[in-house]
Prior knowledge:
By secondary structure, this protein is an alpha+beta fold. Helix content is 28%, strand content 25%. It has a seven-stranded antiparallel sheet, sandwiched between helices.
Amino acid sequence: MTDTDRIQLDPVTVEIIGSALSSIVDEMGESLVRTSYSTNIKERRDCSTALFDQSGHTLCQAEHIPMHLGSFIEFVPLVMARYRADDIRPGDVFIGNDAYAGGGTHLPDIVLAEPIFVQDRIVAWAINTAHHSDFADRGDAHIFQEGIRIPPVKLYKGGVLQHDVQDLILLNCQVPAERISDLRAQMAANRLGVSRLQALCTKYGTDIVIGAGQELQDYAERKMRAGIAAIPDGRYTAADLFETLGYPTPIAIGCTIDIAGDEMTLQFDSPPQVRASFNMTRSALLATVYYAVKSIVDPTIPPNAGLARPLHVSAQSGTVLCCKEPAAVMGRISTCQRVVDVINAALAPVCPESITAASNGAVVSATFSGTRRATGDYWIYLETIGGGSGARHNKDGLDGVQVHLTNTSNLPIEALEIEYPLTLLRYELVDGSGGAGRYRGGMGLRRIYRAGEDCQVAISMSRITTAPWGLEGGQPGGKAYVECSAPIHGSTAHLAPGDTVEVVTPGAGGYGMPLAAAS
């Protein structure tokens, strides 16, 4: 269906179908969480679901993990470029994760996509990604050390599992029993999406559903343009430093934003890519920009491809923010958080009520791994730990939450101690870590772990030397740090039974001059 032969739809029908699409992706997400096996998905909800139209454009994404849009936006187009239309049939399921040949942003996020057929034609795609907590205790000098790389290939053909493909993938995983169970949960989620979208087409008509999807993308574009047009024309710039445990040199990140009418151009500057895990692919940069600009301009914009049309993003290839093969990308999410910070800082002078002071600006993670003494089985436990959320122009920031590109839950203490040979000694807010201001920044978190068996721990954190900034005279938030009873080498340590690790996450900046200072 082209623009010239679109069905004219009334706004009520478009709204009803738009709500139905949102319900479908939400239901897919709940199915994935409830049927998964690993704690990272069933407890921490580190997964996302979406529907794409027949052309490979985002139709609707569930409000799970904004970063996962980066795993989606290139995947279906890559499938369609890799396979002829006649070679894609009902029941085919494509799997991939590669950051360069698979449209992903890092290797643990494995994507499954299934075409949705109605009357022998593809009308949409069901797609999801889940973070598989595997590939631990590996290097990060380049992507070949970070796990198995999977380009878009068929895991199922006509509904039949390709055992050789599955066996190849599982052989390269350290905890294959978890991987197969989580992959089956992803399959179930997509099959649910296929069934629900087909039922929607039966109820309203396929052409009407397709037309509504196009109208919804156009609506998102109009809302984005209207929001951009409300910002004064001009050039706005900001810069920040990114530092991380195990990499001694701070990385300068800059952003120049040009507003011209109802279009926005974002130019990013960063040094050449490094032999460390925090490089970002272009798809990760795009997902970050789309999230950040949407949250500033109008959070009610539907999460589909239309919102990206007025946005123009550029960054030099081969740099930290737009790396090329074979740069390592495992820890790209913390760098993405800093990109949000510089976008917010650049637009804060002209959007003061739409932007918070700097949030914790990091994705602090602790990854424990080892071999169970009783069974000899290998285990991996990943936890990303929340921090402070920046104060707003009229409210205090939130304490101990995930912010921006990540939206995972914590792993409950009971589940942690049942599943792994670890004990959590303390889990609390860090008093005083929220920056002072007319409105206080959110507080960071402290978690103290004790090992019950020999294991390895790898810590990732940022905002170690640079603090989350305040706005309008607000004070900066507290910094991150780690303390360990065993020696830390870079960002890793070997723990013996009884050893402890204390992880403290950053707070957030305050907003407005503190009342005592103002008086």
